[in-house]
Every structure is written in structure tokens, then in C-alpha cells.
Write a structure and sequence with these properties.
Radius of gyration: 19 Å
Largest sheet: 4 strands, antiparallel
Structural class: alpha+beta
Oligomer: single chain
CATH topology of the domain at 121-184: Arc Repressor Mutant, subunit A
Shape: globular
Length: 186
């Protein structure tokens, strides 16, 4: 039996879900971002217990098919940008269509209608969050980050970063150091 869970976007979320399933005596086959497959069918009472337990952790058991598809879109994008070692070589529209077995136009229209932003803007927002993380960790140069996230150039990355955050990547990085120095002076 497959279950779909909203707001399940990180590895700690997966651990919470596994823990709640085990507490209820449910045996899972797969626990992925936003999706769980369990071996057994569950009763209405167990379903409600799981729903309540997940809700207490900020997660939501989903019933609506469109909401499930939106969550799948979000999870594929988050997984692709934040957790895969390499972004796909094909364009994102083809990647999403193939991964979710739906026409991209349908996915795009549904996502825009429900979320109020385009898939492209959601991808950009996630890429910029990834850039922020990589800048804070200071393990890669801006050139390496641009290459890793498939930006055509450092200038393109910098322009998009500034458009989204209002800051240049170098200023953002300096702010991090200023915060660290301020904390050390406490």
C-alpha cells in the first residue's frame, strides 16, 4: 500500500516517518521523500493514528490526488537539486515528465494553479537555497558551484542569486563571516 506524505522533504523527515510506522507495527518496503510503501493494508483506525502522529511532527498524510502529484513534483525537484550528486543532463521539463509519467504541460499548469508559482521559479528557488548552503560550507568556489548546478556561467548564477535574495553571492558569504565573528565575541 502506498501512502503520500506532505512536507516530507529531508532525511530527518524520513527517519520520523519510519519511527512512526514502527510504533504502529507497520512494515515499510520503501520510505522516500513524500512517499511510503508499506507491506500491509491499514485499517481506518491505524490510518487515523498515523495521520495524527505525522501531524504532530509537521507532516501530513495526503488523500487528494492532485495534492499528491504536487508533492511528488516538489520532492523530485528537492531530491534532484539537494540530494543527488549530479543534476540531470536533460532539461528539467523532460526529467520531470519522465520521472512522474505525466505530460510536462499538465504538471506545469497544475503546479502553477495550486502553488501560485511556476515550476521554473520553484526550481530556481531551490537552486539558490543550494547555492546558499554551498557558500556557507565554503567547500566549493563560485565557479565550481555554477558548474555543479548547471549554470551557464558564474555571471548567470550571480545575477539569479541577486535577483532572488537581493544580495550578491560574495556579500552573502561575507555576511556569514560577520555573523560568526559576532557570535564569537559574545
Amino acid at each position: 500500500m502506498k501512502l503520500f506524505i506532505k512536507n516530507m522533504v529531508s532525511i530527518p523527515c524520513k527517519m520520523i516517518v519510519k519511527e512512526e510506522l514502527q510504533k504502529l507495527g507497520l512494515h515499510f518496503i520503501i520510505v522516500e521523500l513524500g512517499e511510503v510503501e508499506i507491506k500491509e493494508n491499514i485499517s481506518a483506525a491505524v490510518h487515523e493514528s498515523l495521520k495524527a502522529a505525522l501531524h504532530n511532527s509537521g507532516l501530513e498524510l495526503m488523500e487528494d490526488k492532485k495534492a499528491m502529484l504536487i508533492e511528488k513534483i516538489k520532492n523530485v525537484i528537492v531530491e534532484m537539486i539537494h540530494y543527488s550528486g549530479e543534476l540531470p543532463k536533460t532539461n528539467f521539463s523532460n526529467f520531470l515528465s519522465e520521472k512522474l509519467n505525466h505530460d510536462y504541460t499538465y504538471l506545469s499548469n497544475l503546479f502553477s494553479e495550486v502553488k501560485g508559482i511556476t515550476i521554473e521559479h520553484y526550481i530556481i528557488a531551490n537552486k539558490i537555497e543550494c547555492v546558499k548552503e554551498l557558500l556557507v560550507y565554503n567547500e566549493l568556489t563560485l565557479t565550481e558551484i555554477a558548474d555543479k548546478l548547471h549554470y551557464s556561467s558564474v555571471a548567470h548564477l550571480s545575477n539569479q542569486f541577486k535577483k532572488v535574495t537581493g544580495l550578491t553571492p560574495s556579500f552573502f558569504k561575507k555576511m556569514k563571516y560577520k555573523r560568526m565573528i559576532a557570535i564569537e565575541n559574545l
